[in-house]
Amino acid sequence: MPFSELQAQDRAVGALQAALRRGRLHHAYLLGGPEGVGKGTAARLLAQAANCEGPGARVDGLPEDACGECAPCRKIARGTHPDVFLLQEERVMAKAGRWEPKGGRTPSREIVVDQVRDLVDHRLSMRRFEGRRRVVVIDPADAMNVQAQNALLKTLEEPPEGTTLVLVSSSPDALLPTIKSRCLRVAFAPLPEPIILAHLVAAGQPPEAARLAAALSGGSLSRALGLDAEALSERRAALEGAASLTAADAGRWVAFAREHGDDREAAAGLGELLLIWWRDVLVAQAGGAGLALAELAPLTRRTAAAITPAEALRRRGLTERLLGALRQNAAAPLAIERMLIGWFHGR
Question: What is the pTM of this model?
Answer without folding.
Answer: 0.77
